[in-house]
Design a protein that fits this description.
Pfam families: PALP (PF00291). Its EC number is 2.5.1.47. The chain is α/β, with parallel strands linked by helices and 292 residues long. 39% of the residues lie in helices and 18% in strands. The protein has two domains: 166 residues, Rossmann fold (3-Layer(aba) Sandwich), CATH 3.40.50; 73 residues, 3-Layer(aba) Sandwich (Rossmann fold), CATH 3.40.50.1100. The strands form two sheets. A six-stranded mixed beta sheet has the order 1-2-10-7-8-9. Helix 5 packs across helix 6 and helix 7 crosses helix 8. It is globular and about 55 Å long.
Length: 292
């Protein structure tokens, strides 16, 4: 039983919707990524990015690490950097929830809050890397982000649905989850439909983005997504509350967004097996007005 905290990353539960899905011919499953030790799907990518960089000699214990993050990747990187005794600075938008900042600090990271959103945080990191000798994992361009999901998330979805999954639904931020899972699932069955979730114009949903061309993640490949469904901020908030109240699943707003899309899909289908990612836990948002 010599398990370490790292052994608890992945193999998250897949649970069936008992209330929200009302189509009797469709099974909707939620993959509970909040059950990872760092509380989100980002544990997978963070571990793969750090471990690969260490194994290949790109970084060592003397490296000055820095990363721009809207929250969950930062928490995961802080946790895993701490385990490997690495120093890391995490740069976040100034409106990040208090819980996220405090969690990163608890894991030993330095936190810098940037006034110009995630784009500003990304620009700040680039400057530090170019001028001050820092190393960034750059989750938006790092192949080991999506490869984490090719190695773990995709195989788990396939295994836990006994190969019966017909649709996979995921919010799109860095797009690592959807890129890696799509790559694996399409190898098993090219007919599996991969559905990405984006915010409607003007909607702000943490963890889901519609990037301007200059900031589009380099790991994103549009051919790996069969369809995108747009979700409004109001829909995402309402569904996040319903997830907690009706399904007992306490999650963040991006999970409410993904669930909204998954239910729209379920209502269209004659039959199918949908897997939707619940990417983190709701306790990360208690200081925001999400659950007011």
């Amino acid at each position: 039983m010599n398990k370490t905290i790292i052994d608890l990353i992945g193999n998250t539960p897949l649970v069936k919707s008992m209330v929200l899905n009302t189509n009797p011919n469709v099974s909707l499953y939620f993959k509970l990524e909040g059950n990872n030790p760092g509380g989100s799907v980002k544990d997978r990518a963070a571990y793969n990015m750090i471990k690969t960089a260490l194994d290949t000699g790109q970084i060592d214990k003397t490296s000055k690490l820095i990363e721009a993050t809207s929250g969950n990747t930062g928490i995961a990187l802080a946790m895993i950097a701490g385990i490997f005794k690495l120093e890391i600075e995490l740069v976040m938008p100034v409106n990040a929830t208090k819980e996220r900042v405090q969690t990163m600090k608890a894991y030993g990271a330095k936190v810098t809050l940037h006034p110009d959103g995630i784009e500003g945080a990304r620009d700040y990191v680039i400057e530090k890397v170019e001028n001050e000798g820092y190393y960034t994992f750059d989750q938006f361009a790092n192949e080991n982000n999506w490869k984490a999901h090719y190695k773990t998330t995709g195989p788990e979805v396939w295994r836990d649905t006994n190969g019966e999954v017909t649709h996979f639904v995921s919010s799109m931020g860095t797009t690592g989850t959807i890129m890696g899972t799509s790559s694996f699932l399409k190898e098993q069955n090219k007919n599996i439909q991969i559905v990405g979730v984006q915010p409607t114009d003007g909607s702000s949903i943490p963890g889901i983005r519609k990037w301007a061309e200059a900031y589009l993640p380099k790991i994103f490949n549009a051919s790996k997504v069969d369809r995108t469904i747009e979700v409004s901020e109001d829909e995402a908030v309402a569904m996040t509350k319903r997830l907690a109240k009706e399904e007992g699943i306490f999650a963040g707003m991006s999970s409410g967004g993904a669930t909204t899309a998954a239910l729209k899909l379920a209502n269209e289908l004659e039959s199918g097996v949908i897997v939707s990612i619940i990417c983190d836990r709701g306790d990360r948002y208690l200081s925001s007005d999400l659950f007011e």
